[in-house]
Give the backbone structure.
Amino acid sequence: MPSSDPRPSVTPPMSKADYVYGVLAEEIRSARIPGGTALRAAAIARRLGVSVTPVREALRRLEKDRLISYEAHHGATVVDLGDDALEEFYGLRAVVEGLGARLAATRITPEELDWLRELHAAMARDAAGGRLDRLGEQSRHFHLRIADIGGPAFLGQHARAVHDSFPVPATASLWLDPGQVPHQIEAHEGILDALERGDGAAAERLMIEHVRRAGEHRRDNPPTG
Amino acid sequence: MPSSDPRPSVTPPMSKADYVYGVLAEEIRSARIPGGTALRAAAIARRLGVSVTPVREALRRLEKDRLISYEAHHGATVVDLGDDALEEFYGLRAVVEGLGARLAATRITPEELDWLRELHAAMARDAAGGRLDRLGEQSRHFHLRIADIGGPAFLGQHARAVHDSFPVPATASLWLDPGQVPHQIEAHEGILDALERGDGAAAERLMIEHVRRAGEHRRDNPPTG
DNA sequence: CGAACCTATTTCTTATACGTTATAAGACAT
DNA sequence: ATGTCTTATAACGTATAAGAAATAGGTTCG
């Protein structure tokens, strides 16, 4: 990955609520905590060595992320979404990130394009070298960066919200399938070319097809776990 | 509005956190609390007669709604979004609700279509009778219901999140402009016809055009506040 | 005169205690 | 024997208070 990621490398001291939120979000998104699991605030507080107050705040945030459902006086439960939701997830990602790509084509700067090209080259190197384990996370950065460029004020954050609101076990990543990786790399390259040409319509179409294809592959190849 | 709204008419006792959240969300979305305002938790707690604990939970939820921004040890600030965000907001709504309409065309039931037709008839009556003040809220139900029908498991909730994540002063509603109302009513009717025909492509196209047009009108007619 | 530092104040952040509600097991009446 | 009511328990919801961090104002040193 390029090193010019603008996020601060020295993170401010994390509050305990942020810490709890980060831990639980990662465990739920990676499906290490499976859907349907009941989350008891007191137990989480004991496990992470904090009181229940920051745990409650973390649970409220996860509820807004649609990763847990909350019922008054009953507790929190990790959401359990079926195949219908999976199809909607990829359909929504397609149109949202497609819009981001279309807008990005008209306002991307050479520096931003270089950053994406660098990231893409790193992915191509990893793919050629068989280092498939990093590709999923790098692809996430690729997609969300384009959405941020196309819609820095509003769209990018919503694209991130959509992207992070669906629990996907790591074993379900398209990028772990050696037969699929070349096609994905090629799709990314086509999108980059469209962005460089300033061809918003093509960028949108290619992004939509790319994400839809990922959804179809995910549907036909359920996670092994 | 039709009376067959499936939500329970007897609402469970609202928690204080829900109460605080509801009050603040309404005040921010209606722009009664303008963008850039600093929100102090203790002051809110005093004003609403609760302690800071439920206030903090409400603020965390509003942060996830992107109605406020939160900075550690500094406090919450009502978001202040510019014209760029406005354009992104309507663009995002267009593609998300367009996808909802496309999916809805293939799975809408006669009962659901009847409900929408009833709502539409009520809007047409109010429009003809000059009762423009209700149209904005009714239109919100119209759009979100279609999204819920098209994507009941996932898409509908995200459409709602997008719709509610942008502060729009009541004075900015398209539906208060008597010159625009007939066009909007006509657009809704065209969408309903496409849904009835099961023509997903047309429903998506019409919904996108409808929302985009609303965004353009909003851009050319800033709120009078 | 300006910049850096210290301190007082304000506000957020967390922990703890108490009240409230849901759930399930057991007793009682039918 | 079954259905309902009672009660015990466990979990959530809220208030309060103590602790931590950031900001502003004044002071001191260069």
Summary: Chain B has two domains: 16-78, 83-220. Residues 16-78 of chain B form a domain with the Arc Repressor Mutant, subunit A fold (CATH 1.10.10.10). Confidence is low (pLDDT under 50) at residues 3-9 of chain B. Strands of chain B lie at 38-39, 68-71, 75-78.
